[in-house]
Amino acid sequence: MHPRLSRAITAKYRFRRYSRSYPRMFAFEKVTLSKMFDSIKQKEIFHIGSTSVPGLGGKRVIDVIVVVPKDSVPLAKKLLAKGGFVYHHTLRKKRSFHFKYYVDAQTSPRLVHLHLTYFGSGELDKALAFRDYLRAHPKEKKRYEKVKREASKKYSSDGKKYVAHKLSAVEDLMKKAMKWYKADITQKTP
User: Fold this and answer.
1) Considering only CA atoms, which of 51, 2, 55, 56 is closest in space to residue 27?
2) Whole-Å CA distances, 32 to 27, 80, 170, 171
C-alpha cells in the first residue's frame, strides 16, 4: 500500500476543515462511477455526507449515493467489486455500504464511501434531506460540526466510537431534516 494512502486511512477519523476541492473530487468519482455502471441504464449518482455541504468540516471522505432499479442491485454490487470497491454491510435491507481507498494519478489519497440503494427505498430522500437541511440551516451545520469535532478529538482511532458519539445528533438532525424536506416537497407540489 502506498504510504500516503496508509496515512490517510489511519487518519480517517481526524477532523479536517472543508475544502473547495470536494466538489471536483466528487465530479471525478461520478464520471468514474457512470462509466462503471454503464450497463445499468437507469441510475442516479449524488454527492452526500459532510463533503457535500459547503463549509462543513469532516473526515475528508467523499460520500456518494448511487440509486439503481431494485432488480439491478446484484449487478451493481458485482460492478462495484470489479471496480475495486469493498462491500462492508447492508442497512435495513435498503442500503449497502461499500468503500474504496486508493491513490490517484498524482498519488493523492482518495477515500470514497459509496451507498448503494434502489429507487423507491426511501434512502435517497434521507440522504438528500440531511444534506440539503444542513446546507439551508447554518446554525444546525455548526452544531453538527461541533459534534463531529468532539467525536474526532475523542475517537480519532476508533470508528465505532466515533459513529456512536455522533448518533444522537444525527438522529435529531435527521428527524428535523425529513420534516423540513417533506414540507418543502409539499410546497412545491401543485
Assistant:
1) 51
2) 9, 11, 30, 32
Report yes or no on whether pTM surpasses 0.85. yes
Q: Which residues of 69-108 are buried (b: 16+ CB within 10 A; e: fewer)?
A: eeebbeebbebbeeeebeeeeeeeebbbbbbbbebeeeee
Domains of the chain: 3-188 (3.30.460.10)
Indicate the residue type of 168.
S
The pair phi, psi for residue 84, each rounded to 5°, is 95, 5
- The burial of 41, by beta-carbon neighbours within 10 Å (0-12 exposed, 13-18 middle, 19 or more buried), is given as exposed
Q: What is the pLDDT of residues 40-87, one digit of tens each?
A: 999 999 999 999 999 999 999 999 999 999 999 999 999 999 999 999
